[in-house]
Design goal:
The chain is α/β, with parallel strands linked by helices. It contains 16 helices and twelve strands. It is globular.
Amino acid sequence: MSTTPITGGPTRRTVLARCAVAATAALALGALAACSDGGGGGGGGDGGDGGTTEIRLALPTGVTSFVNSDIAVARELGYFEEAGLSVETSNLRSGTSVTNGVVGGDFEVGGASIEPVINAFAGGAELAIFASYADRLEVEMVVPEEIQSVEDLAGQDLGIQEIGAFREVMTRMVLESAGMTPDDVNYVSTSTDAYVSGLVQRQITSAILHPEQAIQARQLDPALHSIVNLYEVEPDYYYGTYFTNASWIEENPEAAQGFAEAITRAHRTMYEDRETVVPIIAETTGIEESIIDEAWTVHMEEVQSFPRNVGLAEDRIQYTLERMEELETLAPGAEVDLSQLVNREPIEAAVEELGEVEER
């Protein structure tokens, strides 16, 4: 297995998957040691004096995707403001980058798939998952027409972010279904906004795409098709988390609850008010409204990607941890106490305040 960037340099290098996963955790631990304040931020939800708490939030893709558009909905509809929060968003390369940024104190809150958060916690970072965005997998692997089975991917160039990040983990999961490993393919490091163009131009043979990206790709090249729908094969796998340094929640319980309330309100609005949210999501993602409207059907009706209530199901997170061990995406020898990693207090308090509604 090798990695080749579509942009940013022509060199190829061999990557050993296990070592890379361990290195990710080590990087996060190093960042933790370098951080003197544990990533603490402002005061409670309104600072305790009627003011506004500022939260620096990092998202895991260079361009915001539908699954992270709950942030935009909460901001545009005033949910953060009503919770006494001002949320400044930064788009990073991957969940691994987000995790390192939160551990290092550059951000109060991060949004990332669960894998890099678990690995950083296993490496010693004192993190806490306290809410979620899309907690169900809603992605699919898209390939050209000449690829008709997973086995056909042998020796091909597959697009990923980086080792241990979400798209690489999903790719590894697809390969495993055919008894293959990353050693049987070539990884190509690809930026978020280059997956569709990379497929169309045949710079990569596969990409893990969100619904809006898959729709866009097929419009540009009808020969592209889905070979695996990850939700269909892994319905119990846990996806997206909002997390922070554990000390931040202790120091800012009102802000943590306020953030959870705003996100929960956004999720409910995304289900209930299609006409309002589609334009917001289209502007946030930079994708045509017609495509986002079609993707809304996938996200909100077919998969029901977002939780309406707490959304931190213990059995599904435990299952995901076990799958990480099987896929060897968990740092070797890591022991993870999920009761210490997942702090449900902010989201449970938020749901109690808002009132529980019918779940999916």
